[in-house]
Design a protein that fits this description.
Elements (H helix, E strand, L loop, with lengths): L2 H18 L1 H4 L31 H37 L1 H15 L3 H12 L3 H28 L2 H9 L3 H37 L11 H8 L8 H28 L9 H21 L11 E12 L2 E13 L4 E5 L6 H8 L8 E9 L2 E2 L5 H7 L4 E4 L3 H4 L6 H12 L4 H14 L16 H13 L5 E5 L7 H18 L2 E6 L2 H7 L2 E6 L2 E7 H6 L4 H8 L53 E2 L5 E2 L8
Parallel strand pairs: 3-8, 3-9, 6-7, 7-8
Antiparallel strand pairs: 1-2, 1-4, 4-5, 9-10, 10-12, 11-12
The protein binds iron/sulfur cluster (SF4).
Length: about 625
């Protein structure tokens, strides 16, 4: 705890307590007067002296402070009640609501706040209640703007996308996930706003638009005292000093408060605890490796994507991101979806979960999960699928977990959304899930930032499997991890897939990961699947030139390379197309060494038997 934080906190506490307890601690009543004490100097009877009417200045300071502080808090509360939901919804939903809210804020902010408050009070009539209402409305745009910009930042973070993938409703995500993550900045702003409100209320009372005499507040007392500045300076100095000290203390307090709101300021775990976690991790890994020795059984039919297309409207024009995707996943398989960045892998996985922004995207085709076309489901129906029947893990585990919630509560939350379990059952299952993914159950009390990247990804996996989904989409699950942790996470996924009969769609740009872990692989290029086959076949003899080029890019040890290749990292010349036009010819033409005049027409997928589909005019001659 820093010295400025302690000093400002103690000053504020003293001011607040003495004002709140004014009826108990003040030596005289608020308006108790004795004309014989008019303008009395400080004495034993009147610590700070008395005003013109013989009222005790100290007592009036306490009663006046009570009204000033309560009114300032009321101003901020009004602005919070209106401004926070407005900012949250306009930032999250955007569109017309955001435009209207934006214009409303622009208009109010174009006037100086005090001038606007004068206008409102003039219209509503003088008095403290109207002054509070007026200032409350004047402060709304500041809060709305702040919350809106915080919401826009938060809604683009992966943890919000992860929450959507679990199936939470949008209002739930807004209030349960986004709002808590705005609290830090918002609390600082609100503390500052209380200080501003004290000043503005004092200004309104000073010009006679605040409290009605004989009620006291610091602004009105300042106004009364200035007439006796020479005879009794304390009458003006005391309320002035109270305003200045309170505002400065609030400013310092708000500066210091952020570090105590942020859980990252909390102490680190002990060495002993971390050693315990590591030992548990090692034990669990050994158990998983043992399990992997068993044979795997693949059944048929869980997901079938047919002729899926997706176009996006962007500022630069329409992007034809997916151009007729066909993909089939058998129950219990690990299917690799591989390709360069921007080829449409992530759009495909988001389309399966209904996470593509339908306002700016046009989706066509079928995504059949068992017999249901997911594209025909309403948002409410999709929420029953997300997290419960199909779940997803993302590439950056730290950003995919809400930073202000413990990992245990995030896992419990996912289950509470889909399963009818009591609090105790939720806690028990969370501990079980953490142990299943190789973590000690004590991890539940930790925040995401207290864990390593590998542990965070394990928490994501625990959350993803918590509702026993049938299909798990792993979108670049190891990209943010180092090689050793990559191997551990993939080993965990394989063992879970076997134990829980999961079907996994592994989305990755890393062909090596596919060859080591997948039963079947589909290669994507320019929004199209160009080759699908059992992984072992595709590696042995790729039938599409792009597949072959990708396989050649896998780094090999020097011993496996011929003299010419040795020491060189293979790359595919050229760049993928930008997809601002509908694809008519084979999109690989500019980079293909086998391109010829036949390739000017888009090739259709040919079934070459043994589960191999290839989309190339020269399939088989590669
Ligand atoms: S269709 Fe032609 S350009 Fe496209 S991959 Fe096959 S050979 Fe190359």
């Amino acid at each position: 705890m820093t010295v400025p934080f302690m000093i400002s906190g103690i000053i504020l506490l003293l001011i607040i307590l003495s004002c709140v307890l004014a009826p108990l601690v003040a030596p005289y009543g608020e308006s108790e007067q004795d004309l014989s004490d008019s303008l009395a100097k400080p004495s034993k009877e009147h610590i700070l002296g008395a005003d013109k009417m013989g009222r005790d200045l100290f007592s009036r300071m306490l009663f006046g402070g009570r009204i000033t502080l309560i009114s300032a808090i009321a101003v901020v509360l009004i602005s919070v009640i209106i401004g926070v939901p407005l900012g949250l919804f306009s930032g999250y939903y955007g569109g017309k609501l955001d435009s209207i809210t934006g214009r409303f804020c622009d208009v109010l902010l174009s006037f100086p706040s005090l001038l606007l408050a004068f206008l409102f009070v003039a219209a509503l009539g003088r008095g403290m209640t109207n002054a509070v209402l007026a200032l409350g409305i004047v402060y709304v745009p500041m809060i709305t703007r702040l919350v809106r910009s915080l919401t826009i930042v938060e809604k683009n973070k992966t943890y919000v996308e992860a929450a959507e993938s679990i199936g939470f409703s949008r209002p739930y995500i807004i209030f349960r996930h986004i709002l808590p993550n705005c609290f830090g900045t918002l609390t600082v702003q609100l503390t500052l706003d209380i200080a501003y409100a004290i000043l503005d209320l004092a200004a309104l009372s000073f010009i006679g638009l605040g409290v009605n005499p004989p009620t006291a507040d610091w602004g009105a007392m300042l106004q009364e005292g200035r007439n006796f500045l020479l005879m009794s300076p304390l009458l003006a100095l005391a309320p002035g000093a109270a305003i200045v000290v309170t505002v400065i203390a609030l400013n310092i307090f708000s500066d210091c408060i952020t570090q105590y709101i942020d859980p990252q300021g909390r102490p680190l775990p002990s060495f002993e605890k971390m050693e315990k976690y590591r030992a548990a991790l090692t034990r669990s890994l050994r158990a998983q490796l043992k399990q992997l020795s068993g044979a795997k059984k693949i059944e048929t039919g869980i997901l079938s994507i047919e002729d899926l297309s997706c176009d996006f409207v962007t500022i630069d024009g329409i992007v034809y991101a997916l151009n007729g995707i066909n993909l089939k996943l058998k129950r219990g398989e690990i299917h690799g979806l591989v390709g360069e960045s921007g080829c449409g892998k992530s759009v495909t996985s988001r389309a399966i979960l209904g996470l593509v922004d339908k306002k700016h995207a046009r989706l066509r085709g079928d995504i059949r999960f068992h017999t249901t076309n997911l594209l025909e489901l309403s948002e409410n129906e999709m929420r029953d699928v997300r997290g419960k029947r199909i779940s997803m893990i993302f590439q950056d585990p730290l950003n995919s977990l809400s930073p202000l919630e413990t990992v245990g509560s995030q896992i419990e939350e996912a289950m509470a959304n889909h399963m009818d379990l009591s609090k105790t059952e939720l806690r028990g299952r969370t501990a079980e899930l953490l142990e299943k993914v190789g973590l000690h159950s004590d991890i539940a009390k930790r925040y995401p930032f207290e864990l390593s990247g590998g542990m965070q990804q394990r928490v994501m996996i625990a959350q993803a499997i918590s509702c026993n989904p049938e299909l798990l989409i792993a979108d670049e699950p190891t990209t943010a991890l180092d090689l050793t942790i990559q191997a551990q996470v993939m080993s965990l996924l394989r063992s879970l897939q076997k134990e829980l009969s999961l079907t996994i769609l592994l989305v990755t740009h890393n062909f090596a990961l596919v060859t080591e872990n997948c039963d079947n692989a589909s290669v994507m290029y320019a929004g199209k699947i160009v080759e699908t086959a059992p992984t072992k076949d595709i590696i042995k003899s790729p039938f599409h030139p792009y597949t072959k080029a990708l396989i050649n890019c896998i780094p090999h040890s020097g011993a496996e390379q011929n003299h010419e290749q040795r020491g060189k990292l293979q790359v595919i010349p050229g760049f993928p197309p930008r997809l601002y036009e509908p694809v008519k010819a084979c999109p690989f033409v500019p980079r293909c060494h086998m391109a010829n005049s036949k390739c000017d027409e888009m090739p259709h997928a040919s079934n070459l038997g043994n589960g191999r589909l290839v989309c190339c005019r020269m399939a088989g001659s590669v």
